[in-house]
């Protein structure tokens, strides 16, 4: 039987006794994002989070696709692979499936993960290989200079859509839940504490974890997530998702109606016991899915945190088990025996 | 009744029927008996891409051709001596290939008015004179089978299904094939359905007895075992040999094998075969698409595996960008292209050599990759090891160009001694190679120009690679014009400098003025044609290219040593284009793109014409 490894996401990755600091994870390369880009905050948060894991640095690999966010691996002094557009989940899958001793991270953006690489993303999620996927969502194409993206709102005026974009955007959380993801979370570039708390859970998760990070592109889509950062309103619209805790913002609460639907009501209007308690571990993803749809209309109330975190066998572990089982049943491979295995005959 | 036994030196049989009639299985079993008997042999399955095309129609005809002999042979044969036609469609589809005087064994039960109409026969060819130039053996195969199975607890339909085994039994009698093996096979195949096993064995034996007793067959034939080189042999198809070659390469390279693949005809059997050999540490990953298949293989290669992806032409088109990433990151990777008829979907089950230029140039930028092509089904084993040797030693993607003919065709294979297989292992880099303990991921080996291969998990060598141009040595992102020019040239020089053996020329008397050159699966028909020419006193030299990139160092010299160079290809002259450009030699091309291998007779005619022309 497969041993479930909940909370043991890094159990197969060797640890170090050496003390690590943020500096150990900074590469010697000059960071080249636009001044003011949200990517800087995420890079700093990741660099200062990694020492906490205590892993041997050489056993960490960052794999990325193409786009502004995908330059990320160059700035970390770990192993890194800056690949091609949309394919990072596929490349990381081959790496993680064959090397369970590595902590493998995928850095991607909304265009990379949801447009050109959409197929690889959904299949990585359903397969549940041990990967941490950080999806930097800035709702715009940055590196190609400002076209709308698959998460841009309908009617977005951009260089390629002067009369407004026509297509309905993806909701990355809904998509991930629909793709059978075992770990789905949302956080925001400007809240380092929250971002790192989500990364902590994501790395502890054995299987694929998808973390959507709202990231500001101050050049082509500035202030896209401003309501979540504005001190005037952010506490009212941010619904914190914490497992076992009621889902509330400063002034709002999530309740389940008699018809089973969930909705957001003024917190003052409901008794505490009527407020929906978050269950990220529920085998049934339907409530998590409903929560992912609460941000409609946009930014009236936005759930932030871990939507779903369930234990499911990881693909790399299952794959390794099949190899072990084959050896247990048939013995280790013997080339001579393999070649002689068919019907043979001798001449001379 | 004593029957006459006639000695033959070789026979070509074609089994043909509906795609649901089990012709491939029948052919496989006859081949196994023939291999066991010790003849040399070569096979050519030919089947539609549709799993069950409409019954009784021309597009639904599936066939299996087997050539066996008492001497070594090179091809599945040009024209059948015997056609087994299970229905009117099979007769009509194959009659054009039959030489006058050939035997035709027909299943008369299927020659109903309706079946005849389906394929446009206005009158029954068994009853008019249209088959007069052949020897027709009219056998009610279906009803004889049903009769033989009376007393079995089977529906009539199930009983009819065994008619292919009846035919196999009859042919086994006709050619003195051993029968024990087929009986054992049927017992094992239907171990869970003993009644079906018994019925098939009964049908098989009834077919044998029918040959023995009926007057329709007055002669049986013997083809003595062939005198092949001493050794242990087995029959093997190209796809199976290629899969075994990849496993052997993994063992000999001391690297775990990782296959990322997406099912595609005619390459899927390599995925199927490799998925059975997990005890060798083989990881097979059925990806969501072709791109993910090669992506995962490249990711695994970054982690220190022997990364392989298997596909056919349409898949290679999709993988191009990732292959380019492999070229620029200089990681070992094997791309197996089992070529099929194109463009686009083309004819998935038919063979072609039309992907050579795509393998060479089908990527953006200056993106050279080595190209290796096997020349026979069993040679797929050695070619896979050779592709792996180059990939690992030079840290580069390698294209391995098989094709549908090699993939599904089979021949006896003399098993190699494991101790004679080359050691193709290369050590990973574990120590810094720069000043002050720095690691320079693109500092090259002076001799091979290969870069160091340091895998994740190696302390002190943490580094980043990627698709953006890299500075020579450090591998840091670089847009410097001179650096790019240097890197483009270094990558090209690395591939051009790969050590490949010289091209060998077969010219027995050393005075031929015409050279026939080939590559890949055309070896058999070309060599058979060359034999014919020499037998009739003609002089012709033969050479066959296994390495298409880089070409052997003496290629130009060989080409220039002959008055005329003839190059048959199953494309419109792709290798000829490359050789003309490179060596300014006026190659004479011979091209046919029919989805089928060349015939020896056809090529002999072409060679003779070239010899005779001024």
Automatic annotation (TrEMBL), chain A:
CDD domains found in the cross-reference section: TPP_OGFOR
Keyword Metal-binding attributed: no
GO biological process: cellular respiration
GO MF entries: magnesium ion binding; oxidoreductase activity, acting on the aldehyde or oxo group of donors, iron-sulfur protein as acceptor; thiamine pyrophosphate binding
InterPro entries: 2-oxoacid:Fd_oxidoreductase, THDP-binding, TPP_enzyme_TPP-bd
Keyword Magnesium recorded: no
Source species, domain of life: Bacteria
Signal sequence bounds: none
Domain (Thiamine pyrophosphate enzyme TPP-binding) ranges: 66-213
Cited Pfam families: TPP_enzyme_C (PF02775)
Keyword field: Oxidoreductase
Record's protein name: 2-oxoacid:ferredoxin oxidoreductase subunit beta
Species in which this protein is naturally found: Nonomuraea rhodomycinica
Upper lineage: Bacteria, Bacillati, Actinomycetota, Actinomycetes, Streptosporangiales
From TrEMBL, chain B:
Pfam families assigned: POR, POR_N
Keyword vocabulary terms for this entry: Oxidoreductase
Lineage: superkingdom: Bacteria
Pyruvate flavodoxin/ferredoxin oxidoreductase pyrimidine binding domain: residues covered: 258-472
Ranges annotated as spanning the membrane: none
GO MF term list: magnesium ion binding; oxidoreductase activity, acting on the aldehyde or oxo group of donors
One GO-annotated biological process of the protein: response to oxidative stress
CDD domains referenced in this protein's UniProt entry, alphabetically: TPP_PYR_PFOR_IOR-alpha_like
Domain Pyruvate/ketoisovalerate oxidoreductase catalytic: 20-207
The protein, known as: 2-oxoacid:acceptor oxidoreductase subunit alpha
Organism from which the protein derives: Nonomuraea rhodomycinica
